[in-house]
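Technical annex, item 7. During the second reporting period the consortium partners agreed on a shared format for inverse folding records so that results from different sites could be compared directly. Each record opens with the tokenized structure and is followed by the designed sequence. A conforming record, contributed by the partner at site C, is shown below for reference.
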């Protein structure tokens, strides 16, 4: 046998009888399936009956296994059973849980199901709260309750603030409601005048100081001084005359009813320096109270005073106490404003504001005298 005959031959399929057959008939039969486990190159199948080369399988590379890392043993300390439990460290918050809380129950077992509030406490419960506060001086709860239920405490201040806010809102929406809300109480103030320009500022002042007050005005005449008093003495005599006239006409106004009189007068501080000032007098003979107070002065030109003096007749019966023409009428004609608005036109401050500030000082002094009189009795 020759060398060529020793080579292995791939068996050829039999040739079909028809001569030329399908192209698939010339394809060699499939060889052994490739092994996908190892990365072996894919050998294409020869389209002809060519010799298939021998496939060399790659040798696997064996990597050395690293030596194991020694594990350090962890020594666990045995628990000290002899150490007392109370001496062990425990978590302690920065603020103790008992801060501001009572250390014992407020309610007894009998009324453990009941719920108490500061409003439902009996009248003598404040003494019990004081005792509990003494037992637990560091308790903030009992301190709050003591201040809340006591006179003038937290609840009283909150209620007063809420009432003041509601009253302020109502009077802002309707200014006429101010007199309705603040009228009432036990205090009655009578003004010796029927002019609203005098009654309104006195009413506002006394209701502001006392909270509630009834302020009414009656017409009062003064025929002992001039129409326009000049000097403090003339104004004082005219105011006293108005108070006496009120008490003589209205017999129901006994000596225990305070009467306030307002009298405007001219005062010459230095030569040709004139001021229009209002004198306020409060009289209550039953308590021996007579308060006198002067308002802020409004500057008056010397020419206006000279005009009032020139308009007064020489035979005027009260020429010694003043003029027959008021300074208000002369200033109003000069400034071309109503008689009651000349102070505001001249200085920017109305007479009502001037009287209200003076009347508030008068009401404050009167309130202090009432407190002193009540303490003495």
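Designed sequence (site C submission):
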């Amino acid at each position: 046998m020759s060398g060529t005959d020793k080579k292995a031959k791939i068996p050829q399929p039999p040739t079909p009888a028809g001569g030329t057959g399908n192209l698939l008939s010339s394809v060699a039969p499939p060889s052994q399936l490739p092994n996908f486990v190892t990365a072996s190159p894919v050998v294409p199948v020869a389209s002809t009956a060519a010799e298939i080369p021998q496939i060399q399988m790659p040798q696997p590379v064996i990597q050395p296994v690293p030596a194991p890392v020694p594990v350090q043993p962890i020594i666990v300390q045995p628990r000290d059973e002899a150490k007392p439990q109370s001496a062990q460290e425990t978590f302690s918050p920065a603020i103790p849980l008992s801060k501001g809380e009572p250390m014992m129950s407020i309610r007894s077992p009998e009324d453990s199901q009941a719920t108490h509030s500061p409003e439902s406490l009996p009248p003598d419960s404040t003494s019990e709260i004081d005792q509990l506060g003494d037992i637990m001086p560091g308790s903030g709860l009992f301190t709050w309750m003591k201040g809340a239920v006591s006179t003038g405490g937290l609840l009283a201040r909150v209620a007063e603030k809420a009432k003041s806010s509601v009253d302020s809102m109502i009077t802002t929406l309707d200014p006429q409601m101010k007199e309705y809300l603040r009228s009432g109480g036990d205090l009655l103030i009578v003004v010796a005048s029927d002019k609203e320009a005098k009654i309104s500022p006195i009413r506002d002042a006394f209701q502001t100081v006392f909270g509630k007050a009834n302020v009414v005005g009656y017409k009062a005449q003064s025929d002992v001084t001039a129409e326009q008093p000049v000097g403090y003495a003339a104004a004082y005599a005219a105011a006293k005359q108005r108070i006496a006239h009120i008490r003589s006409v209205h017999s129901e106004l006994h000596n225990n009813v305070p009467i306030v009189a307002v009298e405007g007068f001219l005062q010459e501080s230095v030569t040709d320096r004139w001021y229009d000032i209002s004198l306020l007098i409060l009289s209550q003979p039953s308590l021996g109270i007579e308060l006198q107070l002067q308002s802020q002065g409004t500057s008056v030109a010397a020419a206006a005073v000279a005009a009032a003096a020139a308009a007064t007749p020489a035979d005027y019966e009260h020429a010694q106490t003043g003029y027959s023409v008021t300074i208000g009428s002369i200033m109003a004609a000069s400034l071309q404003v109503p008689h009651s608005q000349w102070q505001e036109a001249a200085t920017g401050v109305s007479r009502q504001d001037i009287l209200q500030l003076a009347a508030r000082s008068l009401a404050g002094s009167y309130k202090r005298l009432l407190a002193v009189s009540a303490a003495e009795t």
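Residues 175-376 form a domain with the Maf protein fold (CATH 3.90.950.10). Residues 262 and 280 are 5 Å apart (CA to CA). All partners now use this format for quarterly exchanges.
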